[in-house]
Amino acid sequence: MADAPPATTRQVILKSRPEGWVVSENFELREVPLPSPASGDVLVRAIYLSLDPYMRGRMDAAKTYAANFEIGEPLQARAVGEIVASENAAFTVGTFVFGLLDWADYTMISGGKGLRAADPALAPLAHHLGVLGMPSMTAWVGLREIGVPKPGETLVVSAASGAVGQVAAQMGRILGCRVIGTAGTDAKVAYLLDELKLDAAFNHNTNPDYLAELKIACPEGIDVYFDNVGGAMLEAALDHANLFARFVQCGSISQYNLVGDARYGVRNLTHITRKRIHMRGFIVSDHSARMGEFLSEMAGWLQSGQMTYRIDVTEGLENAPTAFIGMLKGENFGKQVVKIGADPSED
Amino acid sequence: MADAPPATTRQVILKSRPEGWVVSENFELREVPLPSPASGDVLVRAIYLSLDPYMRGRMDAAKTYAANFEIGEPLQARAVGEIVASENAAFTVGTFVFGLLDWADYTMISGGKGLRAADPALAPLAHHLGVLGMPSMTAWVGLREIGVPKPGETLVVSAASGAVGQVAAQMGRILGCRVIGTAGTDAKVAYLLDELKLDAAFNHNTNPDYLAELKIACPEGIDVYFDNVGGAMLEAALDHANLFARFVQCGSISQYNLVGDARYGVRNLTHITRKRIHMRGFIVSDHSARMGEFLSEMAGWLQSGQMTYRIDVTEGLENAPTAFIGMLKGENFGKQVVKIGADPSED
Fold first, then answer.
1. Could you say which of B256, B265, B275 has the minimum Cβ distance to residue A266?
2. Structural domain span for residue A217
């Protein structure tokens, strides 16, 4: 398992900042020498990288909630990998770890910073980036802290087949809600209905009159809206919301690649007062104190078969930019990961 | 004090529903016979009517949080008046009362429904519609329940010389905040600075670059935004908000008279997620259980001179429509009331 550490690594760097939509020219694949590990260093071979919509914000120069990517430097992602060299007593070669790695075959982590063990006995390694990782905890925190759905209430989840959406939607079903999902292809809509057993779903690309769709799907109005897309869907959800509805503002993927007047203007915010709506944004990392509670509940749902999780795997570091661009356009089907190297736990 | 009840009364009725801006043709003044009081009835002579922005919503056919006004029927308003005839043992002729009255010289209240005594010894009668009434409690609930400003934080209040805004702004000052107000004339801005002692203020009509104004007035960003206007000011406040800011969605007077695409589209709601903003709408009547607490605190501030309150009095029932239309355009200076008849408590 522990071959000699390689002398070089491939990396994907941020070549230029996107203006609006991300394009492949914003990235560059390069090969650089790997230094020998200094004292405390840990060298990690990437197995799976997690691609997530929030990373779009890190490509801008403007400060977002996560630190920005630097031009000329490798992009970074949550990832699982294997330790292939270690000058750090806390980390053993051959161990699987979870942490923030470069978009690269290998990343040197000074002091082993942020690395945690990933147990392949608990779930397949890629699941540590999904249903047992950040996207799933995002859904869990959003519903536990903000949405707080009660049995019998109506929950609408936009982008409900996505990394976060599929967990939010199934949680709503487990908690006894009527759950409606939106997705961008008929295959995804079929998945929501047939696999996730949602009560209703519609294709937001082929059915642009969102308000009409919501009226059909939610005859009793919307009590909790879990928003992953923003824009026109958010506006329609406000129009169809019930009194005292909760709006979980998780993301706005429809808006991330738009600038200035191209961004959607939401014209009906007066509903927030009239309907006494509670709208709140959140970032999962603010709630890391609840990680144990989340893992315990989610592992239980996985084990009982109440929760399922779909992953979309792209093969090869060189294809990471294309996968990222595709994800921003909704071309992924399930949680997007990139498989960088062999997964020995699969054997 | 108790002359024979009159045989007729003047009333202002809703003649037609406004499309967009309210116009004088939407109202009609008429004179109708007054029936003799039946058993349980109370006849009230109006002294002051309260005109408030939320009433604009009641003029539409669409359901708002208050019941709609009916075409051909008198409009209604919170009011103080004097009982001039009573077939109800609970109500004595000559008593001052607070309640929901017609836009009329006289209103017959079946069973005395909703009438409460108004004590002129506590404060001048018109104050029962303002600083001791619904607008003031709206400000109090908004800050106590949603804004929860901490000493040293920055509070921005839009329409800060209005019925609600002037209380919200002074409360912020009393609670130890840096307070910034916006208003629509230079005289109002001078009032905010000189009388209410706010830290900064600007004229939102002559300074349309709200974001630039907020950056100057709030060098440390916005922690609490008390929104009475909606639209472009709300968008600018989102742009300049701090992490974990609270947005108290009290009203949107800039939007009430606009329909369809004329409504302002807020394009930067992604900040709600990025900045973890908590935005919540509310209606004061949901919080009536806290009335005693509110009255006690507000009366204390009035007595100590920490709280002042400006009322804009229009004379005469026949001028109520013009006063209402003017208020929607920001022509009032302070809380808008209409004096319908003599106030014996002033003698």
1. B265
2. 134-304
